[in-house]
Specification:
alpha/beta; two-stranded parallel ribbon; globular
Length: about 425
């Protein structure tokens, strides 16, 4: 049940989920990292599942192993026995790659679990193996299954997950809100969303809808003090963090003097980081959409909610031209027909949240159309940091004035 965010009681502050364990202090997605998060006091653990060629389910974030281990290649193309069981992390202290069996053994001793299923895995095969492993524990229906949150990125996972694992709690994990609304709203009670996507007007509207529907919200990856405070204000079910000990210390402070902690975040918070601005969010959402389709297959749009804030999180590249903000339903239908895409329109159930457009900005921000703004844009373009701007510019929903922060630049992770 959604939590009242205005004045949460100590029992209602967000739970702490260790993101890949205590990954700021230990090699990520290892048993040492998971056990450290539990020692810190985390109520849950977040990790990622992949299947080897010999049907062993392992816990690792990337589909390949080069970034974190001394091995090479894709997990899906290698066996566990004789190969992956021998790889070790690059980070010290060196650790082996854990298996789902080891995680289940840990769970039978300790806390909750949040399982993230990557889209490149075959869901039929994955969920059948998980079902069979759970069957080995006689008390799994009461002691293990209720503590597992199965995170789904791609909608192709929904049907086999419901068929093989009907007693497990499902959540959607995503960067933005549009895919959550389009494909997962009916089947998921929990949504695990990138924190930055929930800060602006569209994120605020999504948070209100989640609460009104009696659903729950988790946010990732929250390592910043002010973001932790904001997540508590929102009434999130859980904060997924690399630093469980830091969040738990802050939560203890919140429990003793919530009003003082809450006052640390002012109305300027939405402008405090480039991660909350529309341009980076457009870029990351566009990349997420393409990555999901590349790894898990095409996302077929069944219906599109028309509203000022509904598509900020995802670029609908299926439409030849996207209607401007304020376009009529007839114009939208015409655009969809021209693109030969079936489209049904439905009004949004809630009144749109107030926009951040035209609000006074901090002194560190300048108008995009000013001489200084143009100079910043030219510099970013010359440095190769703005290439994503051009395919996205034609998809913007309004013609209102936009802004560039002085410090805005595309990070290496773009």
């Amino acid at each position: 049940m959604a939590v009242e965010h205005t004045d949460p009681t100590p029992q209602k502050f967000p739970k702490c989920y260790g993101h890949r364990g205590a990954s700021a202090a230990w090699p990520e997605n290892t048993m040492a990292s998971f056990e450290a998060a539990i020692r810190d006091g985390a109520e849950g653990l977040e990790s990622d599942l992949h299947i080897t060629t010999d049907n062993v389910v392992v816990l690792h974030h990337d589909p390949s192993i080069e970034r974190c281990t001394d091995g090479t290649g894709m997990i899906a193309s290698q066996p566990w026995h004789g190969v992956l069981e021998h790889v070790r992390t690059k980070a010290e202290p060196k650790q082996p790659m854990p298996t789902l069996d080891q995680m289940f053994e840990l769970l039978m001793r300790e806390e909750n679990r949040h399982v993230d299923v990557k889209p490149e895995n075959d869901p039929e095969r994955m969920f059948r193996i998980i079902r069979d492993k759970l069957a080995k524990y006689p008390t799994a229906p009461t002691e293990l299954s209720p503590r597992i949150v199965l995170g789904l990125w791609h909608p192709r996972c929904i049907e086999p997950a419901k068929r093989y694992l009907p007693n497990i709690h499902f959540s959607h994990i995503g960067f933005g809100t549009a895919i959550a609304r389009e494909f997962f709203w009916k089947d998921c009670q929990t949504f695990s969303i990138f924190f930055g996507s929930l800060v602006g007007a569209e994120g605020e509207l999504f948070r209100k809808d989640v609460k009104a529907a009696g659903k729950e919200l988790m946010v990732w990856t929250v390592n910043n003090h002010n973001e932790m405070v904001e997540a508590a204000k929102w009434g999130c079910r859980a904060v997924i963090t690399d630093v469980p000990s830091s969040y738990l210390a802050l939560r203890r402070t919140m429990q003793t003097d919530w009003q003082a902690v809450a006052a640390q975040n002012t109305g300027w918070f939405p402008w405090s980081s480039w991660k909350y601005y529309n341009l980076p969010l457009y870029t990351f959402s566009w990349m997420t959409w393409n990555r999901l389709e590349k790894r898990g297959g095409p996302l077929q749009v069944r219906e599109l909610a028309i509203g000022p804030y509904m598509t900020t999180g995802i670029v609908h590249r299926h439409l030849e031209s996207y209607p401007a903000h304020g376009a009529t339903a007839a114009a939208t239908k015409a655009a969809a027909a021209a693109a030969a895409i079936p489209l049904s329109l439905r009004p949004h159930p809630l009144t749109p949240a107030p926009s951040f457009y035209k609000r006074p900005l901090p002194a560190s921000c300048v108008p995009f159309g000013s001489a200084k703004g143009k100079a910043l844009f030219r510099t970013a373009l010359a440095e190769g940091n703005m290439e994503a701007y051009f395919p996205l510019a034609g998809q913007f929903l309004t013609q209102q004035e936009s802004y560039l922060s002085i410090g805005l630049g595309c990070p290496d992770s773009c």
